[in-house]
Amino acid sequence: MPLIDISDAKPGMILNKDVEDGRTGTIFATSGIVLSTRIISRIKNLGTKYIHVAKLAENTDNDKQEIVSEDKEIQIYHKEFSNKTKNLLNGVKMGKKLIITEISDTMDNLIDEVTNSNNILGKLRQLSKDDDYTFEHSVKVSMLAAMIGNWLNYSQSEIKQLAYAGLFHDIGKLKIAQHIINKPGKLTKREFEIIKKHTVYGYNLLNETIGMNKNVALSALQHHEREDGSGYPQGLKSFKIHEFAKIIAICDVFNAMTTDKPYKKKVSAFEAAEYIERSSFRTLNPKISRIFLDNIATFYVGNTVKLNTGDLGKIIMLNKHRPTRPVVRVNDEFIDLLKNKKIKIIDVIS
Ligand SMILES: [Fe+2]
Fold it and tell me: 250: Cβ–Cβ under 8 A, 6 or more apart, which residues?
């Protein structure tokens, strides 16, 4: 197991001993991962001078190695982040204070992955599942929100606040009975009134948290408000809703629709996108919806999709003004979904 100077490390090499983050005492990179340019530069930033590596990975095609290692990277950071956040939230459930510094570094790593990835939606699909729907949903909303913040050219610190806003948007649900939160099927009127309170509970909790930006608390309060005033808890109209809360609302709807629940089957990203497009005339913010839809659609060009006709096809190109209705090639036929309104994409295969 050779020991090498970090300046001699190359993408594609396999780490053979854990690298620790001396500041926090946690493991930064685990043995067995394939090094990428980004991991190498982060290890350098830790001040680590030497690392143990195994022999080069079998396939030394650098581009391929880079893709493999970046996929692994996001999984590692997601797992570490999920574990730490879960501990933190379990503590809050038991009455402990929320201390965000406990997850701050891992949050930075994850944001870095999300904002530098050119296929974050594909990667989100591959991340490990969690039995706790609200928890898994919150982590994904956090990552989607960071992604939108990046597209809106937010600063690094704003993107981080937005990621916290996504992560904690439903934190008020910790104060509501689990049998109501996890109830399969339709809620009674009374149960829905109780659920609505998670916005206010979340706001109060986050507002009392030391070091938490006020906009994060406002997002928890306002993420169910809608542009036309039809939302809750205050029935605010567009100009009174914070932009963070508008972003979280879109991520919340998109991820909820594209995730399987015991009582509701998921729909494809394209169906969810079309729903957001329709809603942007009334309930969701049109500017943010547009940025979201334009950008996510480009991820899917080249992907194989299943149509409601039963055919499999490949997305060939996007229609500029309707990114949710692309041109799909099925065998030798090109189907323009803008002209064939009855044809829908019901699943993204790869
Ligand atoms: Fe919510």
Answer: 148, 276, 284, 285, 288, 289, 292
